Fold this sequence. Notes:
By secondary structure, this protein is α+β, with helices and mostly antiparallel strands. It folds into three domains: 17-118, Porin, CATH 2.40.160.90; 144-237, no CATH class; 241-364, no CATH class. It contains six helices and 21 strands. The protein has helices at 2-12, 16-24, 175-183, 216-230, 284-295, 343-351; strands spanning 26-34, 37-48, 51-58, 66-73, 76-81, 86-92, 98-104, 111-112, 115-118, 144-151, 160-164, 167-174, 190-191, 201-208, 234-249, 257-258, 268-269, 276-282, 300-302, 310-315, 353-369. The chain has an eight-stranded antiparallel beta barrel. A four-stranded antiparallel β-sheet has the order 10-14-12-11. Strands 13-21-15-19 form a four-stranded mixed β-sheet. The longest helix has 15 residues, at 216-230. It is globular, with a radius of gyration of 24 Å. The protein starts with a helix and ends in a 7-residue tail after the last strand.
Amino acid sequence: MKRLLLAVTLLVALPAALLHAQDVVGIWQGTLQIQGRELRTQIRIVNDGGALKATLHSIDQGPGVLPGTVTLQGSTVKMTVPGIGGTYDGRLGPEGASIEGTMTQAGAPPMKLDLKKVTAEAAWPLPAAPRLPGPMPADWIPAFEVATIKPSKPDTPGQSITVRGRTFGTLNQTVSGMMTFALGLHPDQIVGGPQWLKTERFDITAEPGGTGMPSAKQWQAALLKLLEDRFKLTVHHDKKELSVYALTVLKTGNKLTKNDNDPNGLPGLFFRGLGIFPVRNATMGEFSGTMQAVVLDRPVVDQTGLQGRYDFVLTWTPDETQFGGRGGQAPPPADPANAPPGLFTAIQEQLGLKLESTKAAVDVVVIDRLEKPTEN
């Protein structure tokens, strides 16, 4: 009898936070209402060595996993999802079987999302990931087997370079923009060439030869080959001292979320608006390259020394020097008192990184020849 009483006493003495942590582990699901559309949302929470980790699945938007972290304070549940700049704030029900809360993404108002805990048998099936081909061999000579080039329609909004499956595409892109992607350069590192290099825009749809999935570097090399073949681009390389930004890590350390889910996958680098930049599965070099190509008025030199891929969202209020000629100027904030900080402050506060202005000798590409593209 004494042993039984002792066991009961130990159970009662367990901290309430530990009991709540046990309650929140499992499969939770609910429905988001977005623009009249219902999106089934499933969150799977596990206890990983004492740390609560989560994966978010948007069932009706296809396959994909968004990693996150979970914290508990009493019955208050908070989850952060860096890949979409998302936060979920909820309150655990008294029986530990429901959570009432809201989901917020960067740049969007909060959305109601109430969750119920379900068994594995009752959980909505996760959509199957598409069967992608294996990687392209390392000795593959990058080239597009088929490519269609068309002048962009006038007044087409936005611009992008995308990879969907094995289809490569550009929308409303100048040759200067394509060169910055293919060569990993800032526009200031491209010297010479005709005026239409930066003004005339093109839409491209292309498929690579072979059967594998090219890496990011192989896609870049294939685009460069296309520019050489269809635009007759020839260049030579040189060095030039330019004003640059050096990207470094603060002494207090970075605040980035490591993404180890797909080390060989392509990065997600798509702006959701001027000053709203969700980054998924990207290296610091890829982040720096996008910032210098799209946002900043000078090259960015990655001096962080950080390896691997990361998820985060950078939100800031752009100034008149940013997005120049590549997306227009952001409108003034509706509520200046609650507007996000400027870019340099945001990078420090949100990422634990720092941009410093300096001068450095950097590579430049001098255009020797460039012609308008040949017919398809």
